[in-house]
Amino acid sequence: MRASLISLALMTSLLAGCEPMPDLSAKESADVAAAPYPALIPLTPGTTHAAPTSATDAEMDALQARADALAAQAN
After folding, report:
1. What pLDDT does residue 68 have?
2. Which residue positions does the secretion signal occupy (predicted)?
3. What angle do CA 60, 61, 63 make, to 5 degrees?
4. What's the mean pLDDT when you consider all of the chain?
5. Handedness of CA 55, 60, 61, 63 (dihedral sign)
C-alpha cells in the first residue's frame, strides 16, 4: 500500500516535469518589437560630486567621536 502511494506520487511528479515549455517569443506584439531601446540612466546619480554640507564644527566633532567609538567597539 505504502509503496504504491510512493510510486503514484513519483509518477505524478515525473509526468508533471515532462510538460513542454511554452513558446514565449511569440508573445510580444509588433509595437514592442519595433520600440527603441530605453535610455540608460546612471545607477548612482548623486555620487559623482560631493554633497554640500551645512554641519557645524561641533556636529562634525560629535560625528567623528561617534565614528571613533564605533571603530573601537568593532575591534
Report:
1. 95
2. 1-18
3. 65
4. 80
5. positive
